[in-house]
């Protein structure tokens, strides 16, 4: 399973901020500011980070649902950053996305049959009868029933709607699915149903997931490796056990220590960070975390630390571990 | 007991909608003592927010109405109290923090304006003194640039900063009870840790009783002394935080806790409760959880279980804890959790 299916290098997405009467560019939001990582075939790579750190933007830029500002994305060894719209459209049957909000991501005026059948039609299944069969099959795969096909999204609960979103993503047997907070809007008892379903589907169809979330327990549960983002940058990436047992980056350490655990017996030394996350339109110079970092040194406000492999398969962007200390 | 701050007694709050009557809060009893932090947990729609709005007499009417029960606050029943009296109580004797702090801060006034007013109601000091006191309060709750923020408007602050302002307000009012409805749900974990820390200080230093509403059992473990679990408009279990998290009794609480992915454990597969949370409706017979309960037996579909007392203050709304069911209880105890 050590073959990379997705390779992202130096990916950036800057959004322009326009202002004034003429709508001139007055600044930019550095939503994703140079991230690099690979995803192996069959693996689940978790991406965590706080609100606004660029997780969704990264996910959408990888699929080119929004155009990246810089960087390269390779899918199965092929650079996809310069593919034409038509070529990209064809490729998307292999690369799908599931969104956080099961309410907003389904067209309320379409039946479930139409919602799930649409990607089938786009990718060439022209026979209505064949599509009907496939929709029925997909509904059963995600734990719904064939009779649900004629219903509308509002007739389903949040968890059921997420199942519909998953069925749609699975329609064309994709290889990679980017899951953007697929369980964040769900109640605990429904969340575990969907997480189990996603794991079963991964095994059954040999899928690869990039699993974006802000809940660190959920990401730990489902992922093989986990990457941590802060202000548009990847600050740490390694196997999930290494990351949770021995976090290296000061931000990862603080983030993990802040998670409240539902167990009164686990005593915790909490690192309480001061202040708020700075704005990505004006990120601090050097290490973006230096304004809140308990270990910040002189160099941290001047030089941006490289994202480097400091131990086997353990990437960290922090001067504490770099050569230039 | 004299140190009882709040006592909900069989509270019933219903909504009268086009599609019928909804018993959102269906006979809820909860006690909160001085200095105590009580958590209400449950999944969305189980009636947590309507319970807290009822205490503040802020249920939107119509369609909502308190149709039965009592809300005793320091011995005074708040149900049907005059709006004039409630205005005095709100913000002074009972403070409230909502999930979205924008709803409780007035968008038209500066932070300083609102904070100063709150301070001046309680202390006879002039405007200038109140201003410098307000800046101090903002610093205490960890707001950077407090002397500038005081002249800013709520929309200029981040969610975490607004929540801290709400806590600063609550602290300056020195209320007897703080009701916090999902105060950290919209916030990131590092900011959540700051806010929970502040709430804990408020409780420690001023002995303020706190009624904390949340769906996050981690937050409960952090800060609550006692926990009430709600399901579909009813209280289904009550106990100390340790009892509920380590040794839940009601099949629903057991399932809920087992469904959580644990950061320190490695599970192959998560436990999951089949089905979904039902919407409260009128005329239901039997245990609300029966359709999803792996221990349900005939009686569960025919009668409503009461809150059976297990030991001391431990309560469980489940027939398995009815003495009459003897053997069945033991069998279930042995099977649950396996
Ligand atoms: N279309 C856009 N125009 C301008 N700025 C944007 C746009 N989309 C996102 N941003 C900004 O980019 C940054 C990253 O946003 P993104 O949605 O990727 O964050 P996220 O990590 O997914 O956050 P969340 O956890 O809240 O979903 C934010 O500051 C956001 O405000
Ligand atoms: N304004 C309203 N009109 C009608 N029904 C309502 C209203 N507010 C709440 N409800 C219903 O009351 C029940 C409990 O809601 P709520 O207390 O908000 O749940 P939660 O536990 O998520 O806070 C739900 O079934 C909800 O749909
Ligand atoms: S580079 Fe410096 S500021 Fe950044 S995380 Fe490391 S020690 Fe902290
Ligand atoms: S009363 Fe019956 S259905 Fe309800 S929780 Fe107990 S065993 Fe389950
Ligand atoms: Mg997002
Ligand atoms: Mg609520």
Automatic annotation (TrEMBL), chain A:
<dbReference type="InterPro" id="IPR013563">
    <property type="entry name" value="Oligopep_ABC_C"/>
</dbReference>
<dbReference type="InterPro" id="IPR003593">
    <property type="entry name" value="AAA+_ATPase"/>
</dbReference>
<keyword id="KW-0813">Transport</keyword>
<protein>
    <submittedName>
        <fullName>Dipeptide/oligopeptide/nickel ABC transporter ATP-binding protein</fullName>
    </submittedName>
</protein>
<feature type="domain" description="ABC transporter">
    <location>
        <begin position="6"/>
        <end position="256"/>
    </location>
</feature>
<dbReference type="GO" id="GO:0005524">
    <property type="term" value="F:ATP binding"/>
</dbReference>
<keyword id="KW-0067">ATP-binding</keyword>
<dbReference type="InterPro" id="IPR027417">
    <property type="entry name" value="P-loop_NTPase"/>
</dbReference>
<dbReference type="InterPro" id="IPR050319">
    <property type="entry name" value="ABC_transp_ATP-bind"/>
</dbReference>
<dbReference type="GO" id="GO:0016887">
    <property type="term" value="F:ATP hydrolysis activity"/>
</dbReference>
<dbReference type="Pfam" id="PF00005">
    <property type="entry name" value="ABC_tran"/>
</dbReference>
<dbReference type="Pfam" id="PF08352">
    <property type="entry name" value="oligo_HPY"/>
</dbReference>
<comment type="similarity">
    <text>Belongs to the ABC transporter superfamily.</text>
</comment>
<keyword id="KW-0547">Nucleotide-binding</keyword>
<dbReference type="InterPro" id="IPR003439">
    <property type="entry name" value="ABC_transporter-like_ATP-bd"/>
</dbReference>
<dbReference type="GO" id="GO:0015833">
    <property type="term" value="P:peptide transport"/>
</dbReference>
<dbReference type="InterPro" id="IPR017871">
    <property type="entry name" value="ABC_transporter-like_CS"/>
</dbReference>
<dbReference type="GO" id="GO:0055085">
    <property type="term" value="P:transmembrane transport"/>
</dbReference>
From TrEMBL, chain B:
<dbReference type="GO" id="GO:0015833">
    <property type="term" value="P:peptide transport"/>
</dbReference>
<keyword id="KW-0813">Transport</keyword>
<dbReference type="InterPro" id="IPR003593">
    <property type="entry name" value="AAA+_ATPase"/>
</dbReference>
<keyword id="KW-0067">ATP-binding</keyword>
<keyword id="KW-0547">Nucleotide-binding</keyword>
<dbReference type="InterPro" id="IPR013563">
    <property type="entry name" value="Oligopep_ABC_C"/>
</dbReference>
<dbReference type="InterPro" id="IPR017871">
    <property type="entry name" value="ABC_transporter-like_CS"/>
</dbReference>
<dbReference type="InterPro" id="IPR027417">
    <property type="entry name" value="P-loop_NTPase"/>
</dbReference>
<dbReference type="GO" id="GO:0005524">
    <property type="term" value="F:ATP binding"/>
</dbReference>
<keyword id="KW-1003">Cell membrane</keyword>
<dbReference type="InterPro" id="IPR003439">
    <property type="entry name" value="ABC_transporter-like_ATP-bd"/>
</dbReference>
<keyword id="KW-0472">Membrane</keyword>
<dbReference type="GO" id="GO:0016887">
    <property type="term" value="F:ATP hydrolysis activity"/>
</dbReference>
<dbReference type="GO" id="GO:0005886">
    <property type="term" value="C:plasma membrane"/>
</dbReference>
<protein>
    <submittedName>
        <fullName>Peptide ABC transporter ATP-binding protein</fullName>
    </submittedName>
</protein>
<feature type="domain" description="ABC transporter">
    <location>
        <begin position="6"/>
        <end position="257"/>
    </location>
</feature>
<dbReference type="Pfam" id="PF08352">
    <property type="entry name" value="oligo_HPY"/>
</dbReference>
<comment type="similarity">
    <text>Belongs to the ABC transporter superfamily.</text>
</comment>
<dbReference type="InterPro" id="IPR050388">
    <property type="entry name" value="ABC_Ni/Peptide_Import"/>
</dbReference>
<dbReference type="Pfam" id="PF00005">
    <property type="entry name" value="ABC_tran"/>
</dbReference>
């Amino acid at each position: 399973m050590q073959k990379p299916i997705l390779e992202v290098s130096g990916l950036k997405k800057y959004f322009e901020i326009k202002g004034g009467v003429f709508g001139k560019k007055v600044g930019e939001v550095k939503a994703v500011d140079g991230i690099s990582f690979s995803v192996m075939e069959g693996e689940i790579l978790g991406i965590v980070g706080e609100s606004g750190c660029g997780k969704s933007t990264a996910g959408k830029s990888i699929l080119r649902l929004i155009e990246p500002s810089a960087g390269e994305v390779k899918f199965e060894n092929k650079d996809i950053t310069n593919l034409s719209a038509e070529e990209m459209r064809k490729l998307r049957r292999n690369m799908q996305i599931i969104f956080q909000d099961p309410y907003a991501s389904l067209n309320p005026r379409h039946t479930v049959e139409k919602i799930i059948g649409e990607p089938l039609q786009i990718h060439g299944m022209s026979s209505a009868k064949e599509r009907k069969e496939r929709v029925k099959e997909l509904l059963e795969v995600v734990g719904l029933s064939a009779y649900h096909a004629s219903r509308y999204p509002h007739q389903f609960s949040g968890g059921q709607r997420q199942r519909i979103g998953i069925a749609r993503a699975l329609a064309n047997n994709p290889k990679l699915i980017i899951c953007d907070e697929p369980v964040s809007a769900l109640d605990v008892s429904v969340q575990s149903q969907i997480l189990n379903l996603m794991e079963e589907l991964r095994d059954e169809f040999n899928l690869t997931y990039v699993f974006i979330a802000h809940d660190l327990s959920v990401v730990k549960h489902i992922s093989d490796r986990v990457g941590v983002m802060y202000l548009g940058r990847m600050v740490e990436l390694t196997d999930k056990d290494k990351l949770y047992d021995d976090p290296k980056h000061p931000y990862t350490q603080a983030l993990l220590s802040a998670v409240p655990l539902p167990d009164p017996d686990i005593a915790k030394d909490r690192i309480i960070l001061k202040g708020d996350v700075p704005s990505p339109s004006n990120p601090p110079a050097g290490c973006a975390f230096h304004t809140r970092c308990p270990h910040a040194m002189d160099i941290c406000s001047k030089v941006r630390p490289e994202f480097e492999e400091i131990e086997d398969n353990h990437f960290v962007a922090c001067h504490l571990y770099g050569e230039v200390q | 007991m004299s140190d009882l701050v709040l006592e909900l007694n069989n509270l019933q709050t219903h909504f009268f909608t086009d599609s019928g009557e909804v018993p959102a809060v269906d006979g809820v009893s909860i006690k909160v003592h001085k200095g105590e932090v009580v958590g209400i947990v449950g999944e969305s729609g189980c009636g947590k927010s309507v319970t807290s709005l009822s205490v503040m007499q802020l249920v939107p009417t119509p369609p909502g109405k308190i149709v039965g029960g009592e809300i005793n606050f320091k011995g005074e029943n708040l149900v049907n109290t005059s709006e004039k009296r409630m205005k005095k109580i709100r913000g002074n004797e009972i403070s409230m923090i909502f999930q979205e702090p924008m709803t409780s801060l007035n968008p038209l006034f500066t932070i300083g304006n609102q904070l100063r007013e709150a301070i001046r109601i309680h202390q006879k000091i002039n405007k200038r003194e109140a201003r410098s006191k307000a800046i101090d309060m903002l610093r205490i709750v960890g707001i950077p640039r407090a002397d500038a923020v005081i002249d800013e408007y709520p929309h200029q602050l981040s969610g975490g900063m607004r929540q801290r302002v709400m806590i600063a307000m609550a602290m300056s009012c020195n209320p007897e009870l703080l009701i916090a409805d999902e105060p950290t749900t919209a916030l990131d974990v590092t900011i959540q840790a700051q806010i929970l820390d502040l709430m804990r200080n408020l409780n420690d230093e001023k002995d303020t009783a706190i009624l904390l509403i949340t769906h996050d059992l981690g937050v409960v473990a952090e800060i609550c002394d006692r926990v009430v679990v709600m399901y579909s408009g009813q209280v289904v279990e009550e106990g100390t935080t340790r009892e509920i998290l380590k040794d839940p009794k009601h099949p629903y609480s057991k399932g809920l806790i087992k469904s959580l992915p644990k950061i320190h454990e490695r599970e192959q597969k998560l436990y999951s409760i089949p089905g979904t949370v039902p919407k409260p409706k009128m005329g239901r017979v039997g245990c609300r959880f029966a359709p999803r309960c792996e221990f349900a037996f005939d009686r569960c579909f025919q009668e409503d279980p009461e809150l059976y007392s297990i030991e001391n203050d431990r309560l469980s709304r489940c027939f398995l804890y009815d003495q009459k069911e003897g053997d069945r209880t033991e069998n279930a105890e042995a099977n649950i959790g396996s």
